[in-house]
Amino acid sequence: MPKDKYTAVWVSHSSISTFLKCPRAYYLQNVYKDPATGHKIKIISPPLALGQAVHEVLESLSVLPTVSRFKQPLLEKFEKSWKKVSGKNGGFLDSQNETIYKNRGIEMIQRVIKNPGPLKNLSVKMSQDLPYYWLSEDDNIILCGKVDWLEYLSDTDSVHIIDFKTSKYDESVESLQLPIYHLLVHNCQKRKVSKASYWYLDRSDDLQSKELPDLENSHQQVLKVAKQIKLARSLERFKCPQDGCRDCLPFERILHGEGEFVGLDDFKADTYILPKKDTDQIPDSTIL
What we know:
Layout (H helix, E strand, L loop, with lengths): L8 E3 L1 H9 L1 H8 L10 E3 L2 H14 L14 H12 L9 H20 L17 E5 L4 E4 L4 E5 L4 E8 L11 H12 L3 E9 L7 E3 L4 H21 L13 H7 L4 E5 L5 E4 L15
Parallel strand pairs: 1-4, 2-10, 6-7
Antiparallel strand pairs: 3-4, 5-6, 7-8, 9-10
Helix pairs in contact: 1-2, 3-4, 3-5, 4-5, 6-7
Pfam families: PDDEXK_1 (PF12705)
Organism: Candidatus Shapirobacteria bacterium GW2011_GWE2_38_30
Protein name: PD-(D/E)XK endonuclease-like domain-containing protein
């Protein structure tokens, strides 16, 4: 069968991660479209809004020459990015909660200003807006994804994969993120990958070095899950292993009309926020 990217199954770190946690959540995020609009659905939340704003600022630097990267103050850039996610557009239900998250973002940007680390060095920008390659032509599967930063190491003519982390939590040791990023960078540009690191911007001035996963093992791991996703899509079988979990239930609430529509995202997905349920409100004391 000839290659056809329009009929291929596209997988990414995000979609694979979701599928492994809950196939039903994968379906609602990546396959389902609202019959009324023809659009996919998305839920915006404060952690997602924070990550979006910080990543937008930092990733904008990678297209600039090193001498120009910090000419425009980063906090000015952050203010512009934050306006896009302010209020309900970022899932904030009150100004106090928004202030808490915005201040976290400001602290992350200030950390980068004081400790720019690799961001002041040469970088490599892949030509594709969305890097992708054929994970398996026989299975008609494409692997895609964006890598936050590629530092260019001139002494070895190689690249250093860097992923910016805005969460308070460490990436799971079982995560397929690095295997997927290693595969993408290896197959979508010509230079060898010699290093990989996470930068936990919420708490660290320094990068956390990670061991590079083996490419062949990574390919087999990722292809195995990708084939499971393709089979689930062909059978239209996406069952939550718990008959309702934290990953799929928020989307089920949207389908049941509980969400508030706040607009379209950059990919034309219908974006919603969810009100807090009564069970989310925990009293500070009880009269017995």
